[in-house]
Amino acid sequence: MQQNLFYPVLLFAFLFTSCSGNRNKTAADASTETPTAPKSAKTANHILVPNSHLYIIPPPGFAANEMTGTITTEEGHPDIQVMKIISGTTPEIVLGQLKEEADKHSPGSWKEEELLVGGQKAKIYHSNGMAGPQYYLAFTDGYTDEMLIINYDDADMATGKLLYEALKTVLVEN
């Protein structure tokens, strides 16, 4: 009779330890996973950057100008414009050329910042080139071939800061 109870107890012990081992392993695996970034939602304050799939919350006083394809003030400057990376080139090539140009006209002005924008990996680049100070926003995860370029005046650093903060609100909608 004792022998008849031995096998069910052994089977129960085996199943119990197997299941608890899997539960611990699953919890350990879950704790090492990289969390996915939440996709940001478009708000009523987002406006479409003309000729793009990009939405942005612009600083006060800025509006879309369909004629110029930019988001700008009534005066037309500073502005936010889209640049599409066309077939046959890559964002790395374009940004490399922009960096080279910035280094030629204002050595050391090129700066890069990695961040998540609208749940997507991106970089914001800053430089001082022939056209003056500029910001570029490029998605680095291959999510889109569109970049944003912001042009502003050296004399208006406060607006430059507002435009920089606006870049962090960009969303891509396909």
What does this structure look like?
With 174 residues, this protein is of the alpha+beta class. Helices cover 33% and strands 29% of the residues. It contains three helices and ten strands; from the N terminus they run αβββββαββββαβ. It has a seven-stranded antiparallel sheet with strand order 3-4-5-9-8-7-6, with helices on both faces. Strands 1-2-10 form a three-stranded antiparallel sheet, with no helix packed on it. A hairpin with a 2-residue loop joins strand 7 (120-129) and strand 8 (132-139). The protein is globular, with a radius of gyration of 26 Å.
Give short descriptive properties of this protein.
alpha+beta, globular, seven-stranded antiparallel sheet, 174 residues
Structure in a nutshell:
With 174 residues, the protein is α+β, with helices and mostly antiparallel strands. It contains three helices and ten strands, in the order αβββββαββββαβ.
Which helices and strands, and how do they pair?
Layout (H helix, E strand, L loop, with lengths): L1 H31 L14 E2 L5 E3 L6 E3 L4 E3 L6 E6 L6 H15 L5 E7 L2 E10 L2 E8 L6 E6 L5 H11 L3 E2 L2
Antiparallel strand pairs: 1-2, 2-10, 3-4, 4-5, 5-9, 6-7, 7-8, 8-9
User: How many alpha or pi helices?
Assistant: 3
Class by helix and strand content?
Answer: alpha+beta
Shape: globular
Reported for the largest beta sheet, the result is: 7 strands, antiparallel
Roughly what fraction of the amino acids lie in strands? 25-35%
Alpha carbon gyration radius: 26 Å
Written as H for each helix and E for each strand, in order along the chain, the element string is HEEEEEHEEEEHE
Would you report the number of β strands? 10
Low-confidence stretches: 5-38
> How confident overall, as mean pLDDT?
78
Helix fraction, binned, reads 25-40%
Order of strands, widest sheet = 3-4-5-9-8-7-6
